[in-house]
Structures
1.
Amino acid sequence: QVQLVESGGGSVQAGGSLRLSCAFPIHIYTYNMGWFLQAPGKEREGVAAIGGDDSTSYADSVKGRFTISKDKAKSTLYLQMNSLKPEDTAMYYCAADYFGGGGLGAGEYRYWGQGTQVTVSS
């Protein structure tokens, strides 16, 4: 069983910043991990991913604004979000997988957190 717990969501004005955190069990540090968003009525879509080798990938919509990283000592995955836009408003989820993952497809990941809400006002 892999439990992922997100935190750090909230409400912010456009142009502001937030940092999302996802606590994970230390034994999955080398797993592929990612951040996804899901707006109401829409499918879940990939935002950023980090491989077991620390390689990263980003959706075009967030390149230059968001940064994914992980801290082994704190057993935590992060998503630093800068220059936020109203269209970034969504529920954000972290995900992990050992054999799959590493990319931005939701179907690649088996383990998911419960989500944290991000709301960006104009």
2.
Amino acid sequence: QVQLVESGGGLVQAGGSLRLSCAASGTIFSGNTMGWSRQAPGKQRQLVALITSGGSTNYADSVKGRFTISRDNAKNTVYLQMNSLKPEDTAVYYCAARASGSFAGFNYWGQGTQVTVSS
């Protein structure tokens, strides 16, 4: 199974930037589609970005143009660069991995890292 550990969250002023990192272990990282989701209190978890094993990316409309997902297979790490942050981006951000035998959805999740954007 894939094991995921997020880092890089924190407090930032609106308009600022953060870079989240997700270290993966336990399986072949390069073969897994990876993603980032977020969840604010009282709201459903929302997928905000994903990247396939081939490097193709997709973003939720709410973050398109501001967030960039990338991966470094040599380091077994996926990143989420977050620019032009808004207070509504405040949430716990979770790294996710798709099982090798799955064509959709995500099967493994990290513990989450808090991102807080002040006005």
